[in-house]
What does this fold into?
Amino acid sequence: MNNTDCIKLSFPVNPAYVSLARLTVSNIANRLQFGIDDIEDIKTAVSEACTIIIKQLDNSTTNNFEVSIKPHNEGIAVEILTAGNYANESLNNNEMSVMMIRALVDEFSIVNQETSSITSIKKMKNATA
It folds into this structure.
């Protein structure tokens, strides 16, 4: 993989597909030679971000959310996004998930505009040889 590669996957708004998003992201992180502990951190952050998005979309008319995975400056950037925006009070209900993601990745942001996204960036620390 090189820094111009970007993988985008669309998933139904259904918790059953979170494991598929986790598996895909962990496979890509493995190909980028992340260490096992870092891969576990990435998988957990992706699970939490997908769960936040699914909770927000649970009663909406949006049927899908997208996971975008891209190599990023000796690391990996994962963006979970969907059309529409969150109600601010709904984000407060996910405070524990947000705190967990922040602890697991190097950079984290939530954008709440015409499209809503949760972006996590994990840099390589324990690369395998």
Notes: The chain has four helices and five strands. The longest helix spans residues 36-57. Helices lie at 18-31, 36-57, 88-92, 95-104. The two ends are 16 Å apart (CA to CA).
